[in-house]
Structure formats: C-alpha cells, structure tokens
Amino acid sequence: MTTPDYRADPENFCYRHPDRQSFVLCQRCTRTICPECQTQMPVGVICPECLRDQQKAAQATRPPRSQRMLRAVRSSDERPLVTYGLVAVTLLFYLIGLIPGGIGDQVQSWLAFNSGFLVPGPFFQPWRLLTVTLVHASIWHVALNMLALWALGRSLEPLLGRWRFAVLYLLSALGGSVLVALLAPGTWVVGASGAVWGLLGAMFVIGRHLGVNVTAIAVLLGLNLVITFLPGSNISWQAHIGGGLVGLLVGFVFARTRAVRQQRTQKLLLAATAVGLLALLVVPLLVYYS
Question: How far apart are CA 260 and CA 158, in angstroms?
C-alpha cells in the first residue's frame, strides 16, 4: 500500500518499501533504498536487484569460493556506527578528564577552544576548532549532548550515509567555533553543542525536503535557543547558532545534490563550505589580534 506522499514524490521513498523515507540511492540503478534494502559495497550501497545481478555475473565468471566471499561483503548499513563512535570517544575523553593528579585537567586544557590559539606563532593550536567537542564542563553537560547526538544520529546517519553524517558533524562543530572566534574572541568554550545543533538544523532542512512534519524539530530549536539566552545560563550562544547555521547549509546541500550525477558537485560544495569557514577566521585575526 502506498501513501499519498509516496504517490506525490516517490523518489523520496524506498522503491521496495513505499512507507519508508530514505536519502540514500543505489549506486548502480540510482533508485532510493531504505537501510533494510542497502548492501554495502566498496563503491557504495546497492539495492537487492542490483546485488542479485552482480552475484549472477560473479557466479558465471568466478569460482564458488569467490561467490561466497562476495556474499560475505554484504552488511547492513542500518547501524549508525559513526554516531556510536562519536558518543564513545566523547565519553572516553570525559572520563580521562576525571583522572586525578592533574593529568585529566591537562588533557582537557589541550582540547578546549579559545580563539587566541589561532594566532600564528608558538601557541598556534588549530585542532581546538574541532576537539572542543570532546571537552565538557559537567556530567550533565556531556550526558545531554550525547543523548541528543545518539537520538539524532540514529535517524540521520542511516538517512544520509556514514561519510555524509560525519562531514555534517565536523562542519557543524567547525561552524560553532568560527562564530565564537568572530563574536566572542578570547572566550573559553567547551562542548559538542555546536555540532549537535548542526544535526538539528540539517534534520530540519532535510525533513522539509522529504515532506516530513518538522514542527517538533522547530519547537526544539526554539526552546534550546531561549534556554541559551537565559541570564546565568553560561552557555555559548555563538557556538550553538554557528553550528546550527552550518547544519542548515549542509542539509540544504545534501537535499539539493542527492542524485548520483550530482555527487561531485556535492563534494565540491562541502569543501567550499569548509574553506569558507576557515577563511572567516582571518577576520578575528585582523580585528582583534593585529
């Protein structure tokens, strides 16, 4: 049975399961496939029909042992492994920060972000633009961020694919740090909130593109924005908004370049986004540190 949304725009739904929306295309026939129908191959994911055709060709040209090895390549792309990895690494660094004797504090101090470390010289430490996501101020801070990452990642990662999801997370984190450098130079910032806000922003745009009701996401963004500006919240609104804006942009890029023939354009736009964000860091260097 098909839904009205499927009949209106079937390209946004799995061709084998019309009730399931997806953002991943078969790399051979370019039809939309859900995580259950995806088979991971060295060149991307393919649908069951293309897999069967490939196995038939392999059976005619390869010995049985090679055919068994080909089947072994098949794996479900449904598990959000990048999401789980990000959560695990972030929690690991939080636990490292709890090590007594000053070791934990020293590790944390090498990861937190401050725009002063972007000034070329002996203290130039650009990795802080991204490693800020590994440092958190309290157990509640890391718990809330990781809960949000886990919830958003389980929906977004299977929809986008692993490498797209990872790029979205990193660019959003970079966007948060860049806006902090522009609007709050010299401020110490910790946390993955900018990256998480980027996931929210991307989910909002992609959801709108797929015709999903995104009211709940809009309300969540609004509530988080209000909390960010509450007096005494001690929250970096610059990081939140910077990550959210980049997430909106990257989500728009993904939504508009989902066809196989547009993959090169998609990668160029993502690279241009990263270069543009890094170029913006010249502004605080000229204005505040010249």
Answer: 17
Q: Domain residue spans in the chain?
A: 4-73, 81-287
Record the tokens describing residue 269, joined without a space.
């736009």
Q: Tell me how far apart the terminal alpha carbons of the chain are, to the nearest angstrom.
A: 65
Q: Which fold has domain 81-287?
A: Rhomboid-like fold (1.20.1540)
Q: Which tokens is 273 given?
A: 């986004």
180 contacts 115 by C-beta, under 8 angstroms:
yes
Burial of 118: CB neighbours in 10 Å, binned 0-12, 13-18, 19+ = buried
65 burial (CB, 10 Å; 0-12 / 13-18 / 19+) is: exposed
pLDDT digits 0-9 by tens, 149-169: 998 999 899 889 999 999 999
Q: Which long-range contacts (CB under 8 A, 24 or more apart) does 276-279 make?
A: 277/171, 277/174, 277/175, 277/178, 277/246, 278/174, 278/178
Written as one letter, the residue type at 200 is: L
Type of residue at 76: S
Distance in angstroms (rounded) separating the CA atoms of residues 228 and 206:
24
198-214 tens-digit pLDDT = 999 999 898 888 777 77
| Burial of residue 73 (number of CB atoms within 10 Å: 0-12, 13-18, 19+) | exposed
Residue 35 has pLDDT above 90, yes or no: no
> What's the whole-model pTM score?
0.74
Catalytic residues: 193, 240
